[in-house]
Amino acid sequence: MERIICIIIGYVMGLFQTGYLYGKLNHIDIRQHGSGNAGTTNITRTLGKKAGIITYIGDTLKSVVSAVIIHLLFGKGNSDIEFLLVIYGGLGVVLGHNFPFYLKFKGGKGIAATSGVALSLLPYNWVFPVFGFLTFTLGSLITKYVSMGSLIFVTSFLIEIIIFGQLDYFGLSTNALYEAYAIVFAITLLAYIRHIANIKRLLNGTERKIGQKKTEI
């Protein structure tokens, strides 16, 4: 039951679409501009860096707030699986962010929300948010593609979880540990699914590079 509640908590938090709400304050529906996505990259390209930063922070904090709520509700009685419950909450946030029911399930791609999941795991190990930031930043700068940096980040996050899980950093039972792996794999898979169009453009050489004008593609 705790797992279901945590997914619901995360989903509700994920419904706060920072990019969509910021766009509305500027009298536009961000989903009708650029790529049609309600996430950080599209709002940055449409409304500028300030809008992008605000969107990224807002979407990241959704996962952190979800983790805090889960800790307050279940931390004392379920300390042995709190890490797992936070991961479930993270999955809920990504689902709410990607598929908000009130926007006809048309939201973002979940990268900022996933980085928030990594940030919420700071109490367990500082490596998750720090390495997450590095893999996304370096991946994007080296490849010149934000989409590539995003995929490198989520893939690395999954690998980190497995490595530290095998090193027994989370104090989970074997079954709970593999359950955590499955949830993070689902989050990673969602990122790849939401980036299918980007992956196709990367393969045929039409994906937009960082700093590249739309007319240059």
Order of helices and strands: HHHHHHHHHH
* Count of beta strands: 0
Strand content: under 5%
The largest pleated sheet is described as: none
Question: Kindly state the mean pLDDT as a whole number?
Answer: 89
Helical content, roughly? Answer: 55-70%
How many discrete domains?
A: 1
Furnish the topology, listing elements before pairings.
Elements: H1 2-14, H2 18-25, H3 40-47, H4 49-74, H5 82-98, H6 111-120, H7 127-143, H8 146-166, H9 174-194, H10 196-204
Helix pairs in contact: 1-4, 1-5, 3-4, 4-5, 4-6, 5-6, 5-9, 6-7, 6-8, 7-8, 8-9
Task: Name the features.
217 residues, EC 2.3.1.275, phospholipid biosynthesis, Glycerol-3-phosphate acyltransferase
Describe this structure in words.
This is Glycerol-3-phosphate acyltransferase. Belongs to the PlsY family. It catalyses: an acyl phosphate + sn-glycerol 3-phosphate = a 1-acyl-sn-glycero-3-phosphate + phosphate. Its main location: membrane. Catalyzes the transfer of an acyl group from acyl-phosphate (acyl-PO(4)) to glycerol-3-phosphate (G3P) to form lysophosphatidic acid (LPA). This enzyme utilizes acyl-phosphate as fatty acyl donor, but not acyl-CoA or acyl-ACP. The mean pLDDT is 89. Helices cover 69% and strands 0% of the residues. It has one domain. It has 217 residues and is mainly alpha-helical. The longest helix has 26 residues. Helix 1 packs antiparallel against helix 4, helix 3 packs antiparallel against helix 4 and helix 4 runs antiparallel to helix 5. It starts with a helix and ends in a 13-residue tail after the last helix. It is globular and about 50 Å long.
